[in-house]
């Protein structure tokens, strides 16, 4: 018994030592980009098999009020919104209300070449539609309250960049159309559909459709960095990015989101797996994007990832299915990107877990 106890204590000490070393490694990775405690900062979290391995906040959530960042702060997540939009489309497909193979013209009859562009093309960024972020006149509507139809009308007559399915080119306009289709098919506003069918079912109590006017508890304020210091973020109408980038969340809620995907809380496995499938172009060439996620790898181990950027905020998350490992980081200044930080954190944890 004495030998068993000594062995257990030795194993425990080794585990605690390696865990402390991993924490120090993650701290040092984050501080390469988020080192100033008086500047806008970020929140980072590592979760494996439902257990939080690491969770820390850095810098200020509000510079003017001198409020320190905490792990429960709510951030705008930018293009990470796309994964929610993609799953919402698959929820509607599971209900028999649409098919990802449907042409856009089935729902928007006057959409140019809408008979050639499918929902699948929109989901995979292979539609060829001109991205509205590249249109110069965007500045004139950026602060206007736009309906989904008005947003689609804003860019639908632009000359396409290529034929549907010909190439992969990241595109926000396609996801605006998807948000509009969700409203047309469900009969609900996009934000209501997401709240009822995803946020509430997944237990994401601190996730919202973004607003600068609503009182949102624990909101992290967004900033830009100028040559003479930080300034408050540029105000835009969230009806413009809409279903391509207008959600808000916390790192802990995003862990709940990942859990909901893994356990079928919101959608069956057959439909969810469509989001994590690598598809092919018209010429048979594979590309590394499913529905709302980039399909990558870490040292040969398959991973799913996506980032986001919107005025004043940046976000990034990496999920490694074989290890049930989720790494996420949010920043409340678009001057600090968590993208490489989160990737380096994920690599460090994967290496530690494999040892």
From TrEMBL:
<feature type="domain" description="Beta-lactamase-related">
    <location>
        <begin position="28"/>
        <end position="334"/>
    </location>
</feature>
<dbReference type="InterPro" id="IPR050491">
    <property type="entry name" value="AmpC-like"/>
</dbReference>
<dbReference type="Pfam" id="PF00144">
    <property type="entry name" value="Beta-lactamase"/>
</dbReference>
<dbReference type="InterPro" id="IPR001466">
    <property type="entry name" value="Beta-lactam-related"/>
</dbReference>
<dbReference type="InterPro" id="IPR012338">
    <property type="entry name" value="Beta-lactam/transpept-like"/>
</dbReference>
<protein>
    <submittedName>
        <fullName>CubicO group peptidase (Beta-lactamase class C family)</fullName>
    </submittedName>
</protein>
<feature type="signal peptide">
    <location>
        <begin position="1"/>
        <end position="20"/>
    </location>
</feature>
<keyword id="KW-0732">Signal</keyword>
């Amino acid at each position: 018994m004495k030998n068993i106890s000594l062995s257990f204590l030795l194993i425990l000490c080794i585990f605690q030592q390696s865990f402390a070393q991993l924490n120090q490694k993650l701290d040092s990775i984050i501080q390469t980009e988020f080192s100033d405690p008086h500047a806008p900062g970020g929140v980072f979290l590592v979760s494996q098999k439902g257990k939080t391995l690491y969770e820390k906040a850095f810098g200020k959530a509000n510079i003017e009020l001198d409020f320190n960042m905490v792990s429960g702060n709510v951030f705008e997540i930018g293009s990470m919104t796309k994964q929610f939009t993609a799953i919402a489309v698959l929820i509607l497909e599971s209900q028999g209300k649409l098919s990802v193979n449907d042409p856009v013209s089935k729902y928007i009859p006057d959409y140019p070449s809408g008979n050639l562009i499918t929902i699948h093309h929109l989901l995979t960024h292979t539609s060829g539609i001109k991205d509205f972020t590249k249109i110069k006149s965007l500045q004139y509507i950026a602060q206007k309250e736009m309906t989904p139809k008005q947003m689609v009308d804003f860019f639908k007559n632009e000359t396409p960049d290529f034929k549907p399915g010909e190439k992969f080119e990241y595109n926000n306009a396609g996801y605006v159309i998807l948000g509009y289709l969700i409203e047309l098919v469900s009969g609900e506003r996009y934000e209501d559909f997401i709240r009822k069918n995803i946020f509430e079912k997944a237990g994401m109590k601190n996730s919202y459709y973004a607003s600068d006017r609503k009182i949102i508890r624990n909101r992290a304020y967004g900033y830009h960095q100028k040559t003479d210091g930080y300034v408050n973020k540029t105000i835009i109408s969230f009806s413009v990015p809409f279903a391509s980038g207008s959600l808000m969340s916390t790192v802990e809620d995003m862990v709940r989101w990942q859990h909901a995907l893994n356990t079928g809380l919101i959608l069956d496995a057959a439909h969810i797996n469509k989001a994590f499938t690598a598809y092919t172009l018209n010429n048979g060439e594979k590309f590394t994007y499913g529905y709302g996620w980039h399909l990558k790898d870490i040292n040969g181990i398959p991973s799913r990832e996506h980032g986001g950027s919107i005025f004043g905020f940046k976000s990034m998350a990496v999920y490694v299915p074989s290890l049930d490992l989720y790494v996420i980081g949010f920043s409340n200044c678009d001057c600090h990107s968590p993208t490489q930080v989160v990737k380096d954190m994920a690599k460090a944890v994967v290496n530690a877990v494999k040892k």
